[in-house]
Specification:
The protein has 208 residues and is of the alpha+beta class. Helix content is 31%, strand content 26%. The chain is built from 4 helices and 9 strands; from the N terminus they run E-E-H-H-E-E-E-E-E-E-E-H-H. The strands form 2 sheets. Strands 1, 2, 3, 4, 5, 8 and 9 form a 7-stranded mixed β-sheet that branches. Strands 6-7 form a two-stranded antiparallel sheet. A hairpin with a 7-residue loop joins strand 6 and strand 7.
Length: 208
């Protein structure tokens, strides 16, 4: 099986950072509590250079923060769009973006929930166990408006589900008990400074 899939298609080789990141500019990452993260995003209706530039910025911002995925509202842009660079449980790497994503409902037959650690760039420093289906199918479009279907299992499925939640106005804290939400926010308060120091150092490294 190929070791890298870009926009759902296998490729023979791929650089450590998606080429988009070299063109992009780092944006500020929004944090839980900011309104843009807690309401459904608007559909993308215009496909062109502005959308392409936004995707470039999102890739660069995601890499600076050591993320596996990033939704547009995580940089304050109210649009249904996310980017990803994420492995599955077998180490296969998946890279791409998805515009106007819609997650297929999981089939009741064969549905399996995995409760594993999950973090979020908008909840810096916190990691909590979140139950999610172990397979995901997300439908949407690429930056040129061409239809896409992206499928994932294991950790990559979790990424697709997490990012689709974002464009629907949900953060992973919404899936936790009140006690676990408080614990995640406590972790963020304790670790935010260290997280932002690492991001600043990564930004300097990539700029060089």
């Amino acid at each position: 099986m190929p070791s890298v899939f870009v926009q759902g298609r296998p490729v023979a080789s791929y650089p450590p950072l998606a080429p988009e990141a070299r063109r992009g500019t780092v944006r500020r990452i929004t944090e839980v509590g900011e309104e843009v993260l807690h309401r459904p995003c608007r559909d993308v209706t215009e496909f062109g250079p502005d959308l392409a530039a936004l995707i470039d910025d999102m890739f660069r911002t995601m890499y600076i923060a050591d993320g596996a995925g990033l939704a547009a509202n995580q940089i304050g842009v109210d649009l249904r769009l996310f980017v990803y660079d994420c492995p599955d449980d077998n180490g296969v790497r998946y890279v791409g973006h998805l515009v106007n994503p819609v997650l297929d409902p999981p089939a009741p037959a064969g549905r399996r929930l995995l409760e594993e650690g999950e973090g979020c760039l908008s909840v810096p420093g916190a990691t909590m166990d979140v139950p999610r289906p172990d397979r995901a199918v997300v439908r949407g479009y690429d930056r040129e408006g061409q239809p896409l279907v992206i499928e994932g299992t294991g950790y990559f499925a979790r990424c697709l589900e997490h990012e689709t939640d974002h464009v629907n106005g949900q953060v992973y804290l919404d899936r936790l008990s009140r006690r676990d939400r408080k614990e995640a926010l406590r972790q963020t308060a304790a670790r935010r400074e260290a997280v932002y120091a690492r991001r600043a150092e990564k930004a300097r490294t990539l700029a060089g």
